[in-house]
Each structure stands twice: as structure tokens, then as C-alpha cells.
Amino acid sequence: MTTFTCVADTEVPLVEVDATKKLSKIDDMIYGGFTEHMGRCVYGGMYDPGNPLSDEHGFRKDVMDALRELDIPVVRYPGGNFVATYNWEDGVGPKELRPKRPELAWLGTESNEFGTDEFMKWLDVLSEGKAKRVEPYFALNFGTGTLREALAWVEYCNGTKDTYYANLRRKNGHPEPYNVKYWALGNEMWGPWQVGQMTKEVYAETAAQWGKAIRLLDPNVCLILCGETGHASWDHHVLRECIEFVDMHSIHIYTAAHAHMPNVTAPLSAERAIQTAAALIDMARIEKNIDPAKPQTTICFDEWNVWDPDRAPGDKGGEEAYTLSDALAVAVWLNVFIRQSRHLGMANIAQTVNVISPLMTTKEGIIKQTTWWPLLLYSKYMRGTAVACHVKCGSYKGETQPKWLQNVLQDGAPWLDVSATLSHDGMVNLAVVNISETEEFSTELRGVGSECKVYTVTGPEVMSCNMDGKEAVNLEESEWKVNDKVAFPKASLTMLRWKA
Ligand code: AHR
């Protein structure tokens, strides 16, 4: 948590860290990824057979190497909206027998060349050299799909007995169960764009029935309820009806605005969404008289990012060209996750490659977008425990996106958006996003070590982009001796690290 005192812009700002005040554990799973059969995410992104940059499985090695740097703990698959017409059985078995199908979310054709077994293999390769494997997280088809198909998929992945789908997995060359723990009960079933859109009442009844059956088949699964934004009546209803059966509650938010200030402050709406969803979870537990011994239902923010679908339409592949402003928005998003970490069990940036992604491929290599750098820095350093910090500075009080954000930001959005952690290596990590496009802030620091490693992400202008052939926005490393004040450059992310 970060507390905030709003002062006049003329006062010298202050950032104070108290690493002895440990507030909440940060679940590593907040640095999760998401790969959907959409645009060039799977085909041409993760999987590009025949390309000299790919391995013997057709997996792009340069993409793999980049993702290893991010140390992703979990990847959601295969959608997104795609899953609402997906039959997982089309994507297993001999490739030459797999049917091509019309794909109704993004209006393409799905070749089914890449399916469950390829995804699991891809995760195996991604996990090489790691102490813990990268976890799979599958979303179930609540659109055209049936409970029978869903149970068959769980059995295919996790079955250990002499049963049809467990044997089918063995026949396909995978004797051991995959032990897929995370299963989403549908995706955005509230959305008018969704094949099989449901009312909240119908969804809640269906989710409870499916959840019950899946758990009978495999009691070890973690079931994830399909929420909306966290601040919708859908969330309220489905949580109340399903709280007994689910482990996590999924919410999705994408932020974006044309102008820098509404763009960079928009992720603060996600902070309110998390707080609201957490309150709805509390309410559901109270109303349903849930045994306190039942572990807390956590929030699974399994789609988040900066995305303007008018700028980068989904049916055209959703390829955003991110700016410095977007990179700072991503840093604010990640500060939100640290500050609200007590409520979060998982978060998944949408998406992992090419589609609204920090990482792009060409036939010849990869491009790290502006948003790559904050994601890399936070994933590397902002793990462990969130610690107390206080910010005193002026604030932005202008237009916001969404508009309602102005109602909840009573003192405006602080010019310095801050979070702090104590990581397992005994380092304190302080992330400061100066959201101002014009002002550098010379800032008093308290509780900060006298010698810090410093990482800065900035660029020439807030609209600077890395997709024009040069890395206008990247990462600079330095060391600072901190005694009195330090300057946070305009439109920048600065991460300071020191020994606790
Ligand atoms: O991530 C892109 C799309 O955005 C997903 O398919 C969908 O769930 C969301 O609307």
C-alpha cells in the first residue's frame, strides 16, 4: 500500500519507504502471460515452423529466450474470445487428421496445427532450467462447448486411470498426466461479442454445475470464475451465487486514451476495480456464511494491458505500437498490482507475443516494445513482499479515462505513482513513475539506502515508439549516492534498489 498526501505543486515532493512494515505477500503469479489463438500470437509468434529461428518443434527460439528473461510463472491458453467456439479435441492427435475450422471470435480459420499437446510442450521448453515449471492455465468453452467436452479435456490432461481420454493422451505420446491445475469457467460470458453470451443468472447456475462436476473428476483443480471488470453487477451476482465453488474470480480491464495524462492515469481505475471486487468477495463470503477455514477467493486479473481496439482492432490481429506513455501506463498498472497484492492470486498480461504485446516478431527477429521494459523490471525485482511507503506531492486533476475515475480520486492522481517491495534477495525496491509530461521532480527521499542501483525507463517524447526501427525507449542502468534529494525525470519510470 502507498499512502498519499496531496500538496501544492510548488512544494518539494517526498517519498518515504519503511521496509520494516511488511504489508502483503506478492504472488509471483501476477507476472503471468496469456497466449490466445488470435492474430499472430500462436502462429507466427510462439510457433513458426520452417523459420530458421525456430527449433525442431517449430517454436521460435528468440521468443522463448525473451520470455525466459521475463520469468513468466503461468500462461493462460487458448483464449480469450477464441475459446467460445473451440473444441479442444480438434487440436490433438495426428496433425494431418486435424480439421480446419471457421473461427468466430476473430473471423479467421483455425488450422488446429497447434493444440493442447503443443502448448504443453512449449511450456516444457519454456520451463527448461527453471526450478519450477511454468504453469498451464486453460480456459473452458462456455459458448458452444458442453460440460461433457470440458470434463473430457480435464480427463485428457489430468486423468491417471484406465479411461478413454486419459488413454487418448497416452496414445498421443504423453504417458504422464499434465496436472493442469488452473481452469477458467468461461471467458467474458457477459460480453455481447461472445458466442453464447449469458445472463449473469444463467452463467452463475452453469458455472456452479460445471464446477461441481469438474471437482468430482479432479479435486485438485483451481477453478476460476468468470467475472467482468470487478466493479459490475455481474461480479456481484456471480460471486454471491458461486463463492462456495470457486477459488479465484477473474476480471478483465484494458485501458487507453489518446492524450498522455488520461492514458497514464487510466490504470488507477483498475486499482479501484480490485478494491471493489475484493469487497464483493467479502460480501459474498459474509452472505453465504462461508467457513473462515475456506481459503480466501483471490482475484485473477487474467487480462490486463493498454489496448485501444479502434487503434489496433482485434480482427486485424490487435498489433499495438506502444509509446512511452503506454510504457508508463504499464508501470502504473504494475504499481497497482503491488499496492493491491493482498487481493491478487494471479494476473496475466494480454498478450504474450504480437497481439497487444510488449514483444513482437518479424520473420527475422524480435522487437521489444516500450512496454517491455517496465514489465521486465517489475518481473525481475518487484517480487516478495509489498512494504509501506508514503508519497507527498502535487497531483493531476484533469480529465480521466474512464471519466468516473475523477469521482474516486478525491485528491487527483499523484504526479509520482509509487510502490515498494522487499524482495527475497534482501533488497528493497522502489518504483517511481513520474507521470508528468513536462516536469522533473526533485524529490526528498526518506528510508532509502545511501547507495542505490538505479534503472530508468524513459524516452525523448511521450509518443516515442520502438516500432519505427530504433529503440527510442529502453532501459538505462546507473548507481546513485542518495543523500538529500533526487530528481525523477519527466515521463519516466525509475526503480531504485538497495540493501535492506
Ligand atoms: O485479449 C484480447 C481479447 O480481449 C480476448 O480474447 C478477450 O477475452 C478480450 O475481450
UniProtKB/TrEMBL annotation:
The keyword Hydrolase applies. It comes from the Eukaryota. It holds the Pfam family Alpha-L-AF_C. Its EC number is 3.2.1.55. One of its GO terms (biological process) is L-arabinose metabolic process. Pathway: Glycan metabolism; L-arabinan degradation. One of its GO terms (molecular function) is alpha-L-arabinofuranosidase activity. It is an enzyme of class 3 (hydrolase). Residues 302-492 form the Alpha-L-arabinofuranosidase C-terminal domain. It catalyses: Hydrolysis of terminal non-reducing alpha-L-arabinofuranoside residues in alpha-L-arabinosides. Coiled coil: none annotated. Keywords: Carbohydrate metabolism, Glycosidase, Hydrolase. Belongs to the glycosyl hydrolase 51 family. Alpha-L-arabinofuranosidase involved in the degradation of arabinoxylan, a major component of plant hemicellulose. Acts only on small linear 1,5-alpha-linked L-arabinofuranosyl oligosaccharides. This is non-reducing end alpha-L-arabinofuranosidase. It comes from Zalerion maritima.
